[in-house]
Amino acid sequence: MKQIVECLAAQHAELDALLADLPEPRWATPTRCPGWTVADVVLHLAQTDELAAASAEQRPLQAGSWVVPAGGGTVDDAAGAMVAAERGRPAAEVLARWRAAAADARAALAGCDPKARLTWVEGDLAARTLATTRLAESWIHTGDVADALGVHLPASDRLWHVARLAWRTLPYAFARAGATLSGPVALVLDAPGGDRWSFGDGTAVTTVRGDAVEFCLVAGRRLDPARTGLVAQGPDGPAVLDLVRTYA
Fold this sequence. Notes:
The protein has 9 helices and 6 strands. It is α+β, with helices and mostly antiparallel strands.
């Protein structure tokens, strides 16, 4: 747990460096999140970090969180509604709120038993998994902000945790899509630092090989698998790349 929270702190610091001296007008820059500006992305992170801190501290989640809009929709729709309800605040206010929420989330998660079950979205999950989910989301949205601002950020081996999360939650991803895995899946990924990351064992019936950053971007729904060098062999190969994800 300590290592994941340290990685989360490093990820927060990377995003903070992009935002600290950003002029107010640039907070209105559109991002690759449809309909969201830089300010909207940071507001979303503040809102969800607040929810993560509350969950880790076993406090009731705030009223209106994760409520799907009337007429049906998805968790993404609910997140969009949360942002829309508080959009338009000054950049300095949004930044201060996110910094406080991020610090609170790190502190609360650091104090958890890694195996403790915590409320999240429409169910519950282990504290370690929630911490890793926060790392994954922070990394994804840091990339959204950097892309909007035209900044290139080098990849970090923090992504090991993101890749592992995507691999471990494949059964959940398939279940949400109404599908079932034919058998275990293995990953063999080339890490940013030059190492090779392997997840799974000799029982795997499907294996995904390729670049770790590309795999994590696919899992974060930021890159089309067809535009990568990832190779998925086995009965579930195409479905794994289509359904893998790092968030609820």
